[in-house]
Design brief:
Layout: H1 14-20, H2 35-48, H3 51-64, H4 74-84, H5 94-98, H6 110-116, H7 119-132, H8 139-154, H9 159-170, H10 178-185, H11 187-198
Length: 199
């Protein structure tokens, strides 16, 4: 705050700040505390943090959100955190970002419900699980093939294709890339949620 660095960089390590600091470049006017800028910077640090280190930092926030860390498979949790860390601005936001991966926390937002009320959306959400029922292979292959099948069967593309599937599987309209969410959730969970919506 109130200083600048010669190369104009804004994201630096502590050592880089110490080395690059010069009193003559400090502003003569009062320092400005920009909370929006702080959040932007914090998101960058979260994104660049090693996943295992980030999990340690997140533990109290996960516990506060009602997650019992010892009851969650460590490898699977690591995959989840790696996927959602690009969505975080602060560590405290973790609970509302990983709830899509837990059936007991899964809830559909008003925005998701609104998308799923459209006729096209209903056709998409019915077609996608039709393919999943008998699909085999890796999650990536299953997802890609199910999307192709749904597109060909319904004629939906772009947002009309992807948003209803996202809304039904995650209960939300925003989040990490859907193919990666599908890979972490697995076919069975996705199928169960889609069927629950159809029913």
């Amino acid at each position: 705050m109130g200083s600048s660095f010669t190369d104009g960089r804004e994201v630096l390590s502590r050592d880089e700040m110490i080395t690059g600091f010069a009193l003559e470049r400090a502003s003569k006017s009062g320092a400005i505390f920009d909370e929006e800028k702080l959040h932007w910077l914090n998101a960058i640090y979260i994104r660049n943090c090693a996943t295992e280190d980030l999990i340690e930092r997140l533990k109290p926030f996960l516990e506060q959100a009602g997650y019992i860390i010892d009851n969650i498979d460590a490898k699977w949790l690591s995959e989840v955190i790696e996927l959602v860390k690009t969505e975080l601005t602060t560590l405290a936001e973790i609970g509302s970002n990983i709830d899509i991966f837990f059936d007991d926390k899964y809830k559909m937002t008003a925005e998701a419900k609104e998308i799923l009320e459209k006729d096209t959306a209903c056709k998409v959400v019915r077609a996608f699980p039709e393919f999943l029922e008998t699909a085999t292979g890796s999650p990536a292959d299953i997802y890609a093939s199910a999307i192709k099948y749904t597109r060909e069967k319904t004629g939906a593309k772009g947002k009309e294709l992807f948003m209803p599937i996202r809304a039904a599987i995650t209960g939300k309209v925003h989040g990490p890339e859907l193919d990666k969410v599908f890979a972490v959730l697995g076919k069975d969970v996705a199928l169960r949620r889609l069927k629950a919506f159809i029913n």
